[in-house]
Amino acid sequence: MFDAAGVREVREGLAAMRDLVGRLVPEAVPLPDAPIMWQAFDGIERLAASAKTLLAARVDESRVWQRAGDRSAPEYLARKSGGSLGAARTSLETSRRVRTLPQTRAAMQRGELSRAQADEIAGAASVDPSAERSLLDSVGGSSLTELRERCACTRAGADPDRDATHRRIHRERRLRRWTDAEGAWNVSARGTPDAGSRFNALLDPIIDELFGAARREGRRESREAYAFDALIELARRRGRPAATPAPGGGPDTAPAQGPDRQPARSSNPTHLALIRIDLGALVRGRAEGDELCEVAGVGPIPVRTARELLGDSIVKLVITNGVDVANVTHLGRGPTAAQRVALLWNSAGCVVKGCTRTIGIETDHRVPWADDRVTELGNLDRLCGHHHDLKTRHGWALVPGTGKRPMVPPGDPDHPANRSPDSTPTDPRPPPDPEVRGSHQFGDAA
Predict the structure, then answer these.
(1) Which residue, 12, 115, 162, 273, shows the most beta carbons closer than 10 Å to its own?
(2) Over the stretch 378-427, which tens digit does the pLDDT of each residue have?
(3) Are 72 and 65 in contact (CB under 8 A)?
(4) What gap in Å lies between CA 23 and CA 89, rounded to an integer?
(5) Does the global pTM surpass 0.70?
(6) Of 347, 201, 211, 199, nearest to 269 (Cα)?
(7) DSSP labels for 186-238?
(8) Over the stretch 321-332, which tens digit does the pLDDT of each residue have?
């Protein structure tokens, strides 16, 4: 039995760390050492955050917050840490959950998880303990966004009544607008994934439009800045004096015409809201276990909601009976609509491991189209503008394979150009069959 850490040891560690940070002179750190030191301090931060989270439930049980005059333990924790009430509330929930999740707790104590990663895994594993190990194994090399998607799928799979959860989220929907201390306007929204997919289908094309215009003019700002501009532009384009009740009882969203208004532009067909659903779930009317029913890149939805969305022209449906979408080949340079759907099936965003971009995604030919004059699904990858630029202009390349995988610089041993002659060929595609050129089919998927 190991000796439990005591207050004296913790305070001694705090004093040592305070001394160490006090002697840190960032400008004096040799450049090769800066990343190493940063990673070491990141490890310290993870350990400290884990310790705070593990102790949060015990702080609540001490009732110190009552004696201090706070209304709750989260309020006490937020006040003491200088953080937000929401973050303190989440930390307390994670602290309680990991008491029954020994593997997650051990990973936290080893400093393997950031606070955000621990919160996500604890939330998902608490409803499905059997997924704890697989979620922990997925942390390495994955972005926080990818981990959140896995955790969301885990929670959805363990939800005994997805329709009820969907209705609850809808009841709790909200959009908050406020002006902060600097006078800046802020907005925050929360709602169901299907509502979000409809919004994204309208906003994403405008983001790309503004982004492209800025690049042509030599202006460079973050995509977040263009997303804000797109939100305002969407409001301008959809603006009208008043909403007219539609036959179904909802607002008529047809744009007003006039000299100062533009008619609503039709949705760019490259921006697809893709429903991924297992055939059994669609036929049965509900998803069971780990069956899939989601809006790609947004999140899980009930089967009932998926059926309702099928009437929307922007939505493409891909049904799978457990096999991947088959290859499609044609002679044009750009992917067909069927190929775009197949690409979205495999990845809602950039395929570079760790990249979380899901807007402004470009289709890249592994073997340049000019070399073989065909467009095959097996030769296409979805890349964000940054990674497409690294590949096209700076010689970077995806490591051989499919799906999410690393992109490496020219000198990396895993770069396709540096692979030995007896290794797997850079282009693993089978020779194209002339008989199927020009066909647009999904094989066993519909």
Answers:
(1) 273
(2) 778 889 888 899 998 999 999 988 778 899 999 899 998 887 665 554 44
(3) yes
(4) 34
(5) no
(6) 201
(7) EEEEE--HHHHHHHHHHHHHHHHHHHHHHHHTT----HHHHHHHHHHHHHHHH
(8) 544 444 445 555
